[in-house]
Amino acid sequence: QALFTPVTKKTWTVPSVDRVQEFIQEAHRVALAPRKGPVHINLPRDVLSAQTPVAATRSPDRYRNHSSPAPDPAALSGVIEAPIVCSPGHGDAIPARVERAMGQMGPRGNPVASRLVLDADVLIVLGSRLGFNSTFFSHDNINPATKIIQVEIEPTAIGRFFDVEVGIWADAARTAADLAAACGSARSATRENWMRSAIEARTDFLVQRDADAVDRAPIQPSGLFKALRGVLPEDAAITMDAGTLCLQATDQLSYGGPHSLFTPLDFGLVGFSFACGLGVKLAQPDRPVVSLMGDGGFGMTMSELSTAVDHGINTVTVVMNNGSWGAEKAYQRDFFDGRYIGADVSSPPFDQVAEAYGATGYRADTVDEVGGAVRAALECDGPAVVDVAVDPAALYSFRRDSFTHRGG
After folding, report:
1. Phi, psi of 314 (to 5 degrees)
2. pLDDT exceeds cutoff 80 at 59
3. pLDDT surpasses 70 at 408
4. How far apart are CA 311 and CA 285, in angstroms?
5. Integer Cα distance of 318 and 241 in angstroms
6. How many angstroms separate the CA atoms of 221 and 370, rounded?
7. Average pLDDT, the chain
8. 323 Ramachandran zone, left/alpha/beta (phi>0; psi -120 to 50)
């Protein structure tokens, strides 16, 4: 039980079988109360082996919150339309097709969104703690002169890392709807020129990103991501793993809307993506689910292919196979003068491994083969794995200032 205490909202040990229902209801109540988060219930062996009559169940409405904090209307006056940027790992908050959507910001975002944040006179921060992944806790990413209006359902997060001009304790979704309703209709040439320049900068960036993508062999990450952008369905749910290739991919792909991107970011969950994809597919069986992984991470969890095959969980796993623990190798190159220890990985052909499990396997050794392989995997009737041979030398360098942040 103590093992889970630091990583959950609350943890319980059920003392007797007659209290199981009580604890399950309490766990749901705590998990779904703001800020929502995971909980843990420990069922000892004697409880699991005992029997008890099932009591009448209580309606969830009887033990859960019915509402969430609403913003003070006075705090929302004077709102104007503005470009929208997302924190890293949350690029699906706004559909990519929305003209004002600028993608993800900060040290792990794209330069257009990051520049807009850095140059802003005022930031309206909806449901973000402005934490490590967004800012590295650094004014290199947020101008100290910028006035911050922070909306958070967790009051202790307001102003925790950056001083705020206005702190609003409220539900982000309700506040976003109220902000949209409060947007003024007044127009000005300055505002329209500013918005138009932001949209043009974003458009130019996307065009240049495609133009700069490397199409030669061995496959470079930029070429791989361009190929994926061209083949992934707009309604796809995309799961990411830990590691530098997935770190780059978060802002390289287009997302159709909320609940399209699932990533552990810095939680160190190597192997997360494939397992997460199975869960997402079970929750939304009609959506295409694509899991991006490195070869190291997939090697840790590929045994779950039997689960996918046995239960018909038809996800597509794209293994970006660079023959290394990419993050560790990048660390060792950049911080230890290339003294590599345990950084390289030997793996079997993952497409053949998939076939051995009863799934369908594909392989791509050139960028031109990526699109066709992923398209075929999406169309096949069953779990599929696409083994993509990525250049082992295409390592992503970490920013040194990411290791100098203050904790908290």
Report:
1. -90, 75
2. no
3. no
4. 12
5. 11
6. 12
7. 91
8. left
CA distances (Å), origin 316, targets 105, 122, 255, 359: 28, 41, 16, 10
Q: Which two tokens stand for residue 250?
A: 């978060």
Distance CA 331, CA 70 (A): 45
For the stretch 345-352, contacts whose Cβ atoms lie closer than 8 Å and that sit 24 or more positions apart, written own/partner, are 345/295, 345/296, 345/299, 347/295, 347/299, 347/321, 347/323, 349/387, 350/295, 350/298, 350/302, 350/319, 350/321, 350/385, 350/387, 351/385, 351/386, 351/387
pLDDT per residue as tens digits for the range 378-395: 999 999 999 999 999 998
Taking alpha carbons only, the member of 131, 89, 134 closest to residue 107 is: 134
Q: Is the dihedral of CA 223, 208, 200, 78 positive or negative?
A: positive
- What pLDDT score does 407 carry? 46
Kind of pairing between the strands at 261-262 and 166-169: unpaired
Buried b / exposed e across 15-39, counting CB within 10 Å, b at 16+?
eebeebbebebbbeebbeeeeeeeb
Residues forming beta bridges with residue 292, ordered by sequence position: 318
In the numeric block, the tokens 């623990």 are attached to 325
Distance CA 291, CA 308 (A): 13
Q: Where are the beta strands (DSSP E) in 295-364?
A: 316-321, 360-364
Q: Which one-letter amino acid corresponds to residue 58?
A: R
